[in-house]
């Protein structure tokens, strides 16, 4: 489909409203039509859509000049004083009217459902003039393309409401990507900000329209499908691979005499059925390591990790006639006895000096 205007002009009551202008647009194309703000923008929009007969030149849609076809296929969005909504109306009223024109359900539930579908339900009861600029333009454009026969959209002077030109230009590109032909009339300043080649009001040499590719959803292929149950493995070629955390051995702790330190067996750990109570079999090594029978309680056999064979401490036997004191243990304090009796090192009781007397006094006597 192609809409082509050649040297169209519109004469006003006292002066030309639109000097001879040429412009064309097709499917998936976007054109900026820039010029000085004034009646020329509205005159061009109405002439291009078959709603105003030009005084010179012609407008053709696929080579035909039928005005009825132009009016059904080409829609004018938000033209000042022509198709712009009344600012005092609530948004739901404007939406209902446009849906009715499109031949769709326009009741209260249908209006709210349409607003909900597009993410604008919060604006249903607001006055139309209170809509954000970007929402206003996009809402009117979406209502326009709700008409099934519309193929070309003419957005008239969206920059008159202010805002960022990139917002309404991006919206125009989105419509073009859906297959529509889009013409946006704007001021020269907006075209310069966008840095996009623009056709000029009153010019017969328009630039080539901007071609916008269709955006299609990408279907996942066998190579791109992701298995949610698959385990992710580290990439050995990565620049910063995650460090491998190694298990650290359990630190041996010293327990109070008479208290056994038992560790919980790890996964797959089995105790030696033949081990004596109190041996390292009670604190079997983590990771399936079997403890050495006969190991003393509290030895490293209780903390062996990852299959490492525990080291059993050698046990020496005392030599006859000698007293072996436990390593790391202090000599026990003598037990207090009644007054007048003290204990010697062998534990036998001996006579003591009477309280208040000493050996020196006895020697003096």
From TrEMBL:
InterPro entries: P-loop_NTPase. Residues 220-230 have a biased composition (Basic and acidic residues). Residues 241-257, 274-308 have a biased composition (Low complexity). Gene3D superfamilies: P-loop containing nucleotide triphosphate hydrolases. Residues 215-365 are annotated as: Disordered. This is ABC transporter family protein.
């Amino acid at each position: 489909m192609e809409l082509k205007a050649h040297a169209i002009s519109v004469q006003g009551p006292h002066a030309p409203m639109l000097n001879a202008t040429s412009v064309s647009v097709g499917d998936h194309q976007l054109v900026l039509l820039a010029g000085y703000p004034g009646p020329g923008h509205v005159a061009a929009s109405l002439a291009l859509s078959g709603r105003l007969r030009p005084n010179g030149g012609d407008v053709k849609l696929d080579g035909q000049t039928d005005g009825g076809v132009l009016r059904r296929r080409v829609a004018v969005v938000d033209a000042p004083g022509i198709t712009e909504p009344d600012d005092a109306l609530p948004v739901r009223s404007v939406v209902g009217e446009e849906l009715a024109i499109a031949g769709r359900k326009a009741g209260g539930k249908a209006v709210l459902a349409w607003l909900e579908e597009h993410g604008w339900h919060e604006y249903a009861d607001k006055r139309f003039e209170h809509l954000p600029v970007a929402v206003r333009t996009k809402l009117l454009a979406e209502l326009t393309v709700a008409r099934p026969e519309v193929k070309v959209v003419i957005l008239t002077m969206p920059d008159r409401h202010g805002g960022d030109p990139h917002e309404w230009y991006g919206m125009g590109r989105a419509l073009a990507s859906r297959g529509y032909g889009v013409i946006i009339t704007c001021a020269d300043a907006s075209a310069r900000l966008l840095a996009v080649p623009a056709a000029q009001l009153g010019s017969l040499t328009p630039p080539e329209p901007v071609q916008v590719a269709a955006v299609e959803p990408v279907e996942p292929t066998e190579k791109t499908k992701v298995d949610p149950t698959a385990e992710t493995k580290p990439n050995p070629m990565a620049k910063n691979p995650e460090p491998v955390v190694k298990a650290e051995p359990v630190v041996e702790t010293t327990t109070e005499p008479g208290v056994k330190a038992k560790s919980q067996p790890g996964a797959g750990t089995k105790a030696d059925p033949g081990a004596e109570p109190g041996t390292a079999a009670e604190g079997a090594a983590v990771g399936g390591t079997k403890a050495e029978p006969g190991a003393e309680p509290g030895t490293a056999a209780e903390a062996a990790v990852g299959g490492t064979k525990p080291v059993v401490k050698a046990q020496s036997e005392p030599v006859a006639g000698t007293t072996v004191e436990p390593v790391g243990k202090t000599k026990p304090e003598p037990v207090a006895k009644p007054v007048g009796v003290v204990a010697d090192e062998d534990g036998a009781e001996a006579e003591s000096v009477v309280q208040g007397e000493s050996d020196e006094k006895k020697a003096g006597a």
